[in-house]
Each structure stands twice: as C-alpha cells, then as structure tokens.
C-alpha cells in the first residue's frame, strides 16, 4: 500500500481527482488490478462533483461488492480484520482485544457496521480527516513500539503483493500472544498465509463459551500444532470463549 499522503482540495484539478480515486482503489482494495467494468462509476461521479468527501468515497469502496467478495467472503475472519486495519487505518491491529472486538462486531452487527467502525473512528478522523486518502502510516505512528512496525510490514508487503492473494492471517499468533513476529518471505511452495510451524506445538487456554451457564464458566486447554493455530482460534472465537493464554510447549 502507499506511504504517500494524497489530499484533495476545493481547487483540485480533474487529474488530481483521478489520482486520488486511483490511490483509494489501490489502498482500500489492496493493490488489485481494477478493470473498467469493476470501477464504482456512480461513486466516482459523486466525488468528482464534490457531493461526497474522500472519506465517504473510502466508505463506499469498503462496502462495495468488490471488497466484500475478496476480503469478507473469501478470507479467514482474522485476515479480514487485519486487512481492514491496514486498508482503512494504515496500520496493523495492536492487540488481541482489538481483533476480538471487530470480529464480535461483524458477527453481531453485520458487515456494514464493521466497515463503518473504522471510517467513523476518531483515529481515522485524526489521521486522514475528510479528504486525505488513507495510507501506510509506518513512518507516522508516533509512540508505537517496534513490534507495531513489524506487524504492519507483515501485513503490508509492498506494492508487489495483492491483499487478496493471501487468505489466512499473518498476525494471529503474534497478536494473540502479544509477541514479536519476523518478517520473512514465504518459502517456495509453502502456504503464504497464517502462522506455520508444524514442528512446534502450542497450549491454548480458554475460559467460558456461549453454551456455558452464567454460574459456571468452564476452562479448557487445547494442544495445537503450529500449522493449525489459525483454524483452532477461529473455532474458539465462534464459541464465544476468551483466549486466556497461548504458550509454546518446549
């Protein structure tokens, strides 16, 4: 995704408007090739007429069938959320709490509410306002720890990668355990998504589930190989349980 700030002004030219439109498609849609037939012509016209702001154009692109099909319907839940953070806020999720909140919102309130939660956030307004195209904020995340940069670069691998090419989460283990993650190119022929370490095993301790009674919140432990972390955590989240800890078994 782009790390350059592009802003529209009242006197911006047609060429500058088209530059902003292309930048939104690249950032929000995850660097795909957008065919003419896939462009949101009506939405573009509203922006060119100044009937809507860049912010509302971004919202419309996020709620488009193009975005929904590629990132909501065809990606793992964790991947969908981490891409939303990158596409709309220009950063990676900070912790497990952030990811869980967005997964729960998407399940309970629906797809549109999940997209709105980024666009309507104070963070979006402070970072981009009404007329700045969202961008990779790696160089502007003041006060963040190094792990925040590593996570962002793990999700955003530059202009050569199309977001929809990777379906599984890149951060599920690092965020769930609040640990660092290495940035490395996937080995040839390897699964490019998710946390893959089949030689290692992890203990996941969870508490509570949707089927537990209010007076009895059960605690369960799962032993999971590294290459099965993503689907196991997805199953746990579907039960409504809370992940207490994830530790590597030595």
From TrEMBL:
GO BP of this protein: photosynthesis
Keyword terms: Antenna complex, Membrane, Photosynthesis, Phycobilisome, Thylakoid
Main location: membrane
Membrane topology: Peripheral membrane protein
GO CC field: phycobilisome; plasma membrane-derived thylakoid membrane
Residue ranges occupied by any CpcD-like domain in the UniProt entry: 199-249
Cleavable signal peptide: none
Stated family: Belongs to the phycobilisome linker protein family.
Database matches in Pfam families: CpcD, PBS_linker_poly
Domain spans labelled PBS-linker: 1-164
InterPro entries attached to this UniProt entry: CpcD-like_dom (IPR008213), PBS_linker_dom (IPR001297), PBS_linker_sf (IPR038255), Phycobilisome (IPR016470)
Cross-referenced PROSITE patterns: CPCD_LIKE (PS51441), PBS_LINKER (PS51445)
Protein name: Phycobilisome rod-core linker polypeptide
Subcellular location: Cellular thylakoid membrane
């Amino acid at each position: 995704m782009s790390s350059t700030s592009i802003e529209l002004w009242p006197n911006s030219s047609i060429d500058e408007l088209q530059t902003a439109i292309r930048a939104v498609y690249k950032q929000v849609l995850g660097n795909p090739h957008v065919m003419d037939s896939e462009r949101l012509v009506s939405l573009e016209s509203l922006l060119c007429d100044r009937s809507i702001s860049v912010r509302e154009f971004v919202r419309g692109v996020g709620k488009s069938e193009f975005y929904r099909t590629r990132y909501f319907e065809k990606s793992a839940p964790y991947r969908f959320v981490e891409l939303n953070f990158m596409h709309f806020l220009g950063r990676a999720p900070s912790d497990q709490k952030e990811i869980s909140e967005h997964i729960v919102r998407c399940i309970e309130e629906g797809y549109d509410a999940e997209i709105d939660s980024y666009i309507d956030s104070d963070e979006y307004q402070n970072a981009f306002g009404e007329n700045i195209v969202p961008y990779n904020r790696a160089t502007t995340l003041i006060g963040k720890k190094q792990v925040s940069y590593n996570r962002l670069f793990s999700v955003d691998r530059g202009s050569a990668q199309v977001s929809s090419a990777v379906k599984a989460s890149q951060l599920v283990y690092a965020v769930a355990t609040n640990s660092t993650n290495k940035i490395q190119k996937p080995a040839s022929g390897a699964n490019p998504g998710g946390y893959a370490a089949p030689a290692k095993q992890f203990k996941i301790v969870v508490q509570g589930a949707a089927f537990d009674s209010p007076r009895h919140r059960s605690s369960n432990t799962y032993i999971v190989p590294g290459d099965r972390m993503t689907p196991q955590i997805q199953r746990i989240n579907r039960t409504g349980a809370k992940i207490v800890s994830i530790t590597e078994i030595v």
